[in-house]
Amino acid sequence: MTERDRPWLMRTYAGHSSATASNELYRKNLAKGQTGLSVAFDLPTQTGYDPDHVLAKGEVGRVGVPVGHVGDMRALFDGIPLERTNTSMTINATAMWLLAMYQVVAEEQGADIAKLTGTTQNDIIKEYLSRGTHVFPPGPSIRLTTDMIAYTVANIPKWNPINICSYHLQEAGATPVQELAFAMCTAIAVLDAVRDSGQVAPEQMGEVVARISFFVNAGVRFVEEMCKLRAFGRIWDSVTRERYGIQDEKQRRFRYGVQVNSLGLTEAQPENNVQRIVLEMLAVTLSKDARARAVQLPAWNEALGLPRPWDQQWSLRIQQVLAYESDLLEYGDLFDGSHVVEAKVRELVEGATAEIDKVLGMGGVTPAVESGYLKAALVGSHAERRARIESGEDRVVGVNCFETTEPSPLTADLDTAIMQVDPDAERAVVEAFAQWRKERDEEAAAAALAELKRRAATEDNLVPATLACVRAGVTTGEWAFALREVFGEYRAPTGVGGAPVTGSVEGGRGAELLAVREAVRVTAEQIGAGKLRLLVGKPGLDGHSNGAEQIAVRARDAGFEVVYQGIRLTPEQITSAAVAEDVHCVGLSILSGAHAELVPDVLRRLRRAGVEDVPVIVGGIIPAADEQDLLAQGVAAVFTPKDFGITHIIGRIVDEIRRAHGLSPFSDLTSDLKEETLTA
């Protein structure tokens, strides 16, 4: 019988509502043949807020599981033996805190922590560029990462303390070269920091390198993506050998897990997402020498809302069919000797190496973040990608071509095609959280927090003090705010100001942008404003700002004055900015599902402030029923992923401003302008 390779770890990224509900989901997934866990935490947990904080309103349990203290972590893994479970945790700014809770729960189960296997994502650099769940400035954040790596190498040697994460760079618009280069620059910054900290002996650097893993993205251009992964391995081998002197080939091995691309999933004809997911999975499994160590696939309906357990099961079965029914695992690398593949890999390596040298020439990845260079580069690349889709140069089936479709039985009832989070779940979590604080030893918690702050002001490793906080019943928000007091908080550059002009004024699509520009100019004249002003706001904790940034950039190019202050704002702050800047439209972007709470809050505050003639528009992943509710409450327009034409959206915004001031629609204005031109 032919000997088969062992399959990769099969995971499903999951967590919602509460620790107890997520524990039930994890047990079911493991019973279905899932071989590892991938924990999604909610945004308050990721950004260091307790569930009763004002910024947590509407966000608790939405995009992941809320873990406010070690009691929640116990419930999350109740009945799941951690010593025998490989767990991946998508957590960054608060990674040290979550790993400490995981260790304490494992110890309570009687586990030998030296046998724990799994991964904490813990790549804070990409948070400044894409997901937006950063808390502290880059310097202290790298310090927390360094402390974790030093601690795990000594105490939890099988754990991957960091996942250098290029996945979200691609989601933010990175080209393959940028994804390779920016991720590798992050790895260099982390390894340099560990080496220079003095916490790890020089002879142990090989052990550090051996525990560095990567989390990558694979898009639908699966040949290019497969070549990208071979290039990743080649660059990593070179960097670790030449820069850090690692001689052991096994320690230099490029180790990565993958979630295939979510950016390319479409709301239109969402059944097409299934074949996209399959093709993207092939990019990270076909080439044995560049095969993923762990794979998690999104569900077909993620552009519509939160996937149901059945949807996640479908994605798991896709992996299982490939691993167990096909003959893929019976062969060596299928691409060795391919001139085509070798040429593409060489091209990617050369391009990425040049970009790495450029970033290192700036002083490394941290100065490149703080200067705004990396963010502006990603915003620009994303804008170019969107422009190619709008022009039809990049074809997306069901979106800008082959749009004719039969009714889909998968989406016949949209209310049941996605999972609905229980609206009472947040209240229950907040009540249980209050009970936890009431019953704990307050003196012990206060003493542990005081010691944490004392050590944070020194160069001591912070993991022991964090473990003491866990055991004393300290909460997620208390741990994070104690460090905020010492380290400060950070607002990353938005990249909007440095982004290039994105809307071409050549050809048919250019005519659309020119028409919108003229409508913006004439409308400003008609209402007596020097310029139309658009406030783009990100209320709550959702840090996925790609869509908001693209709207801001295109509105700027169309002649708007754009007010965009970045992520993580309260409804009160957004209202204050709208009043202070005297804006003509407020645009809210929310992808976390918290729109039902946050948008009405903004509407109420604007009305109380006497702002009656400023339309409010909303964009995000918003189910049809919620869209109707928002419109009924006074929202002027709702945009979802199906609305891919950004210039068209800007035109709609102009229309809403004109309607609010009693002016004729943009289309009538365009006709009038054409008639005036012909008459002249």
Structure description:
There is one protein chain. The chain has 680 residues and is an alpha/beta fold. 50% of the residues lie in helices and 9% in strands. It is built from 26 helices and 15 strands. The protein starts with 8 loop residues before the first strand and ends with a helix. The model has no long low-confidence stretch (mean pLDDT 91).
Key words describing this protein structure:
alpha/beta, five-stranded parallel beta sheet, about 10% strand, globular, single chain, about 675 residues
Topology:
Layout: E1 9-11, E2 13-14, H1 19-31, E3 37-40, H2 43-47, H3 70-76, E4 86-90, H4 95-108, E5 117-120, H5 125-131, H6 138-155, E6 159-160, E7 162-165, H7 167-171, H8 176-197, H9 205-211, E8 212-218, H10 222-242, E9 256-260, H11 272-283, E10 294-296, H12 309-325, H13 339-361, H14 365-370, H15 373-391, H16 425-439, H17 442-456, H18 463-471, H19 476-487, H20 507-526, E11 533-537, H21 546-557, E12 561-564, H22 571-580, E13 585-589, H23 595-608, E14 616-619, H24 624-632, E15 637-639, H25 646-660, H26 666-679
Parallel strand pairs: 1-10, 2-3, 3-4, 4-5, 5-6, 7-8, 8-9, 9-10, 11-12, 11-13, 13-14, 14-15
Helix pairs in contact: 1-3, 4-18, 6-8, 8-10, 8-13, 10-11, 10-13, 17-18, 17-19, 20-25, 21-25, 22-23
